[in-house]
Specification:
This protein is mostly beta strands and about 200 residues long. The chain is built from no helices and 16 strands. The strands form 5 sheets. A 4-stranded antiparallel beta sheet has the order 3-4-5-6, with no helix packed on it. A 4-stranded antiparallel beta sheet has the order 13-12-15-16, with no helix packed on it. Strands 7-8-9 form a 3-stranded antiparallel beta sheet, with no helix packed on it.
């Protein structure tokens, strides 16, 4: 779990979890906060997660490996004044075998912003969607469901997900006239997917 206190040590809030899903924890090893109060947590399962100051999950990045943006055994995290995130990794997989010549530190740019200006133009059995481009984004993900959501899931009624979109427009057809559909778009960049 993560706990938040005032500078005098008074308890404010906490958030907990015992899994590896979004917003859940699997052996958290380090915590840092940025200038906006967002919280970064480094995990034993080779990833970083970012939360709001109240514990709402925002985004994540990282996977097992020795390449750029990957981790073997991340140990610490820090955030610089410009919003860059620094992660230390000792390269030990737990067996005593080290995958790097020496422990390393990786630097990541500020998190990918969420696209703004999502617009929907209805048509006959279709909707034309557009949004503002995000600098540094490599692709976009479009989410849809027939009911509003807090955390999108493939089990939501009418749920659909379109990944690897490289344009800021999308024509969604095959819809039923007279029904309500809900959409959200995220951007994917070097630090993973933005918040919905």
């Amino acid at each position: 779990r993560i706990q938040k206190f005032t500078s005098q040590g008074a308890f404010i809030t906490k958030w907990v979890g015992e899994d590896s899903g979004f917003g859940l924890f699997n052996f958290p090893r380090g915590v840092a906060a940025d200038g906006q109060g967002n919280v970064y947590v480094v995990y034993a399962d080779h990833r970083i997660q970012k939360f709001t100051s109240t514990g709402t999950f925002l985004t994540k990045w990282g996977s097992l490996g020795s390449g750029d943006g990957q981790f073997i055994s991340p140990r610490g995290v820090a955030v610089g004044a410009a919003g860059n995130v620094y992660v230390s990794d000792d390269g030990d997989d737990g067996s005593g075998s080290f995958f790097y010549p020496s422990p390393r530190i990786q630097k990541f740019g500020p998190a990918t912003p969420t696209p703004t200006g999502l617009q929907a133009g209805p048509g006959n059995g279709q909707v034309s969607l557009s949004w503002n481009a995000v600098t540094g984004a490599t692709s976009y993900i479009l989410y849809m469901a027939s009911t509003p959501w807090t955390n999108w899931s493939a089990t939501l009624p009418g749920a659909m997900k379109h990944e690897n979109l490289t344009s800021t427009t999308f024509l969604h057809d095959g819809l039923t006239n007279g029904t309500t559909d809900n959409f959200a778009v995220t951007a994917v960049g070097p630090l993973g997917e933005s918040h919905q």
